[in-house]
Amino acid sequence: MAIVSNARSTIWHDTTTNNKGKMIEDFKANKQLNIINDDSPTRTFQSTRGESYIDLTIVNNQMLPDVTGWENAEVESASEHNILKFIINPEADKFNEGHTPEPKYITKEKQHTEFYNNLFDAISKNFQIDTTGGSTEDMDEELHTRLTGHNNIRRFIGKFDDTVQETCRATCTPLRAPTKKN
Predict the structure, then answer these.
(1) Which residues contact 89 (CB under 8 A, 6 or more apart)?
(2) Mean pLDDT, residues 68-81
(3) Could you give the C-alpha distances from 122 to 129, 133, 135, 165, in angstroms and in order?
(4) Dist CA 35 CA 147 (whole Å)
(5) In 28-40, which positions are buried (b, 16+ CB within 10 angstroms) versus exposed (e)?
(6) pLDDT range class, residue 180, cuts 50, 70, 90
């Protein structure tokens, strides 16, 4: 989805983060969404009041490998917002055919710290990232750098998904579908 968020965040390459930006950051993390905006030298919004990166292109994990060629087009438009362009692979729906969804888990409040610590350690181990003195933001930036430079994005996302699933199995409570009574 492409949105005019009116939200600023350093995560999508703006110079500052405002309250709306923090809300979208949290929403993005909770819903496992990805912002695919590249760090463009041209802001997505430009007016006499200023410039910012408030226009976002957001995809879920399944769609991430199938969206390519994101571009902040520097062409005239009838708006103060630039035209954002990207390509969606026409074969994208074929990936989901016959795909069995992964089990779902619930993390109880008392499990949050343990889950995040285990996930941080698992990502560090599985992706061989030195986390000595690092923060989650440093790890996120390193993963982003590796993802954008990886020659097989689908394999990279699969490895990341496996890491999350492994951490969920070790830390979280499986969310079971309600059973039918006969």
Answers:
(1) 65, 66, 67, 68
(2) 78
(3) 10, 16, 14, 11
(4) 13
(5) beeeebbbbbeeb
(6) very low
Please state, in angstroms and rounded to a whole number, the distance separating the CA atoms of residues 6 and 20: 7
How do residues 164-175 score in pLDDT, each as one tens digit?
888 988 888 776
77 confidence band (pLDDT: 50, 70, 90)? confident
What are the chain's domains? 2-92 (3.60.10.10), 105-174 (no CATH)
Q: How far apart are CA 125 and CA 35, in angstroms?
A: 25
Whether 17 has a pLDDT exceeding 80, the answer reads yes
**Which residues neighbour 165 within 8 Å (Cβ) at sequence distance 6 or greater?**
102, 103
Rounded Cα distance, 83 and 173, in Å: 44
CA atoms 137, 37, 89, 33: torsion sign: positive
Token couple for 156: 């990279």
Compare 99 and 134 and report the one with higher pLDDT. Answer: 134
Q: What is the mean pLDDT of the chain?
A: 80
Using CA atoms, how far apart are residues 160 and 125, in angstroms rounded to an integer? Answer: 11
